[in-house]
Amino acid sequence: MADEVLSQNEIDSLLSALSTGEMNAEELKNEEKEKKVRVYDFKRALRFSKDQIRSLARIHENFSRLLTTYFSAQLRTYVNIEVASVDQLPYEEFIRSIPTMTILNIFSVPPLEGRILMESNPNIAYAMLDRVLGGRGSSVNKVDNLTEIETTIMSHLFERSLENYQEAWGSIVDIDPILEEFEVNPQFLQMVSPNETVVVVSLNTTIGETSGMINICIPHVVLEPIIPKLSVHYWMQTQQPKERNEEEVNALSKTIRGAEVDVRAMLGEADMSIEQFLGLKQDDVIRLDQPIDQPMRMKVDDEEKFYIQPGKMKNHLAVQIIEELREEALDDE
C-alpha cells in the first residue's frame, strides 16, 4: 500500500501542533505501528495483484465485445454485454453466490491445465433459447426440467461462442476451448477445492428486454502458468516481430488472391429509348460508342480497370490486356 503524501499546508499544521504540545510525537509513533498491522484472511488469499486483475478485465472487455457481435448475429435482436466486475474470491464463496439451479458450461482450455466455468443466469439462457426457436426473446425460468432438445440447443449455442473466447486470449496465449460438460446444479460440480482462489468475471448481459449476468469463473491453477504475462510490463514490452507481420501480410495476400471477382470485356455500349428498343427488327444495326480504332475496356466488379484488345487463344475467344486504365484517364473523360 502506497504511503499517503501530505500537502505543504498539512505539514505546516502538523509541525505547529507538535511545537505547541497539542500533539505528542510518541502517540504518532504508536499510531504508525498500529497501522502496519492488518488483518489477513488465509481462507481468502489474494493471489493476483491489481495489475493482473486489470489485465484480465481488459481481456474480458474484448471478449464481451466479441460476444455481443456473436449473439446479435445468432439471435437477431438487441444484445449488449459488458464487464461489470472482476474479483478474486474462494471457489466455495462463488458457488454459494449463484442460483441453486442455473446454466453451467464447463470447458477446458488446452494447453492450460484445469477447467473454466461459464455460468449464465436462467433468464438470459431462456431468452436466447426463445429467440433461437423463433420467439420474441421472452424468458421462462424452468431450468429444473430442461428437455433434451433444449439442452442440446443451449449447449451448442454456448459452445460456438467459445471461438470468441479463444480470440480474446490470443494476445496472451493460444488456447483451444473445448466444452466438456453442461450442468444445471452447481452442487454437483466440484472443479477445485472449496478454498481455492478463483477469478470471477461478471458480464452484465441484456438480450432484448431481458437482462441478467453471465459469470466466468477461472481457477488459479488455470492462470498460474501465464501469470507473468498478465503484468503491464509484458503488455508494453510485447511487440509483434517483423517476421510475424510478414507472415500475416502473406496470409492476407494469399486469401485476397483466392477471392473471386466479376470480370467483363466491354464490346461497347449504346443508349436508346424504350420505343426504339421495341421497334428493333431482324438485320437492324445498333451503333455502339466504341470506336473500332481504339482499344476496348475491361470492367472488374463494375469498375473499368484495363485497356484490352480482342482475339483468340486455342480456338477460344479471348482478350489481351494492353495496359492498366489510370484514374487520370477516367477523370479526363
From TrEMBL:
Upper lineage: Bacteria, Bacillati, Bacillota, Bacilli, Bacillales
UniProt main location, coarse: other
GO biological process, one term: bacterial-type flagellum-dependent swarming motility
SUPFAM superfamilies named in the record: CheC-like, Surface presentation of antigens (SPOA)
Membrane topology: Peripheral membrane protein
CDD domains named among the record's database cross-references: FliM (cd17908)
Family the entry assigns: Belongs to the FliM family.
Domain Flagellar motor switch protein FliN-like C-terminal residues, every copy: 256-324
GO molecular function: cytoskeletal motor activity
Assigned keywords, A-Z: Bacterial flagellum, Cell membrane, Cell projection, Chemotaxis, Cilium, Flagellar rotation, Flagellum, Membrane
Superkingdom, natural source: Bacteria
GO CC field: bacterial-type flagellum basal body; plasma membrane
Compartments where located: Bacterial flagellum basal body; Cell membrane
The name this protein goes by in its record: Flagellar motor switch protein FliM
